[in-house]
Design a protein that fits this description.
By secondary structure, this protein is an alpha+beta fold. The chain contains five helices and four strands. 41% of the residues lie in helices and 23% in strands.
Length: 115
């Protein structure tokens, strides 16, 4: 029995919230995107993070957007342990919902969620 291969796309540089939304809009069901590598809980807190304040804020927006997309049924969110306190945070695209809001504009759905 041959198992299907799974490929995860990894961003070459820190992924922005807008890039994440764009990926959701064009991703086919089952496609995977690693949107962060590290320890998200530590990386978004000033006392524990080595990131700049701007980078922490951007990562916080990205994490919130990923969770919002999960709640909207657009992605599955999973983690892969890479080592001690180090994880790959992965979004897996789901079949797009067939509601009027998403048929009209997936980007509008994601942007309304941010408001």
């Amino acid at each position: 029995m041959k198992l299907p291969t799974t490929t995860t796309t990894r961003a070459q540089c820190p992924l922005s919230e807008i890039e994440f939304c764009a990926w959701i809009g064009q991703a086919e069901p089952g496609e995977r995107l690693e949107y962060h590598r590290g320890f998200l809980a530590q990386d978004t807190i000033a006392i524990a993070s080595s990131l700049s304040a701007t980078d922490m804020a951007e990562l916080g927006k990205l994490a919130s957007r990923a969770f919002g997309a999960f709640e909207a049924g657009l992605v599955h969110l999973v983690q892969e342990r890479l080592g001690l306190d180090r994880f790959a945070y992965i979004a897996i695209a789901r079949t797009k919902p067939k509601s009027k809001a998403t048929t009209a504009s997936l980007s509008a759905l994601l942007l309304n969620e941010a408001a």
